Amino acid sequence: MKDEARLGEEARQLLENRVFRDAVTKVEQNIISAMKRAAVNDELLCNRLVISLQLLEQVVKGIESVVQTGKMAEIATQRDVKSKLRAVMGR
């Protein structure tokens, strides 16, 4: 659980990192800009751009998922520590 908590913290730091956020925003803007310029009849390009946007969103969601898993692991670790303390103290 400590590993999950540590990874969650690293993921949180990544999502809060200005360079990472700016990079994600720029990539998203570039994809949307390319979608606006794409010819409607160019189905292959349009599909690829949609997939690119979906993949970018999935990367961010995947990192957010690691953050949530880390938070749950931290809570579980704290509960375990409290439980062990109670057992040691005879409560």
Key phrases:
mainly alpha; 91 residues; rod-shaped; 3 helices; 90% helix
In short:
With 91 residues, this protein is mainly α. It is built from three helices and no strands.
How would you characterize this protein structure?
It is a single chain. The chain has one domain. Helices cover 90% and strands 0% of the residues. The protein has 3 helices and no strands. It has helices spanning 2-16, 18-37, 43-89. α1 (2-16) packs across α3 (43-89) and α2 (18-37) runs antiparallel to α3. The model has no long low-confidence stretch (mean pLDDT 93).
Q: Hey, roughly how much beta strand do the residues contain?
A: under 5%
Low-confidence stretches at least 5 residues in length (pLDDT < 50)?
A: none
**General shape:** rod-shaped
Helix proportion: over 70%
Summing up helix and strand content along with how strands pair, one would put the structural category as: mainly alpha
N-to-C order of helices and strands:
HHH
Most strands sheet: none
Secondary structure elements and their pairing?
Layout: H1 2-16, H2 18-37, H3 43-89
